[in-house]
Structures are given as structure tokens and as C-alpha cells.
Amino acid sequence: MAVEKPHGDMSNFEVYREARGHENPDAAEYEELAADLVAPQVDHHPTDGRTQRGMIFSTGSGDERTFWSLVDFDQGTNRHFARYARVTPALRSGFVEILCTEVDERATRVDVSYELTALTSAGRISLQAYEPERFARMIEGWRSLIESKLSALASARIR
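Above: the chain sequence. Below: its structure as C-alpha cells.
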């Protein structure tokens, strides 16, 4: 099967903290939470789960088993950027970028983009979940999940 042209989309949201009575976590802590949201099952490297360039972890099971590697990681003062390479061998491979930027003392803007390529015919079908409307709903789910975990996030620190 020939490798197809990458499929990509981008979405964003803002998370407001103080309006709901939470402390002000910095942008870097949102990236840590984003990694937690995908529920790593195995921290392959480093084995202590430390967030760093070159880290490798896996998520999912069966045909959705996905291997992730953090290929670019920048912790700025008011912004935080991570780029992951990911491969789901039975279906697709590509990149995920997450940029968290402090809007003000109350909010952080989170930009998420995926660029994926189908590896199999089943992979082509799986890319339908990343079409613009579905992708926007998926990312909105991230916002809701992050907001539901703000209390824990307020005390989180990147290892």
C-alpha cells in the first residue's frame, strides 16, 4: 500500500482557572496533564516517567496500541511547546503538537494539532475521527477533562 498524503487539523481552547476558584498553574503543567489524559500504560524511557525530549511511552491496546516519542520540548516562561511523533502500527503514524500559552493570570490557551498518515486501509477509515468537526469535538473533550482535573493540576509539577 502506498503511503498517503498526511491528514491534519488544528483546534484550540482556553482554560479559565480563577473563575472557578482554582490556583494558577503555569502552561507547562497543562502539557503534563495532556500526557496524563492519553493515559500512558507503559513508560518505556525514561522508566520514571520524567517528561523530557526523547521520552517514549505507549497507550491503547489491540489495533489502537500507539507508541509516542517526545521529539521537541520547550518550557518557556509563558509558553510551553511539545511535539510528539506517534505510530499506531496497525493504522497510522504522524505528529501531535501542543502549544500552551498563558493568556493572562486567569487563562491558558491550548493549541493542538495533529498530522497523521494512514498506514493501512483500516488506517484510512480511522482518520475519519480526525475530520474537522470530529477533531474539534475531541479537543473540546480535552478542555472538559482538563477543567474537571484543575484541582489536581494546580499542585502538579513536571518531573
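Residues 132-148 form the longest helix (17 residues).
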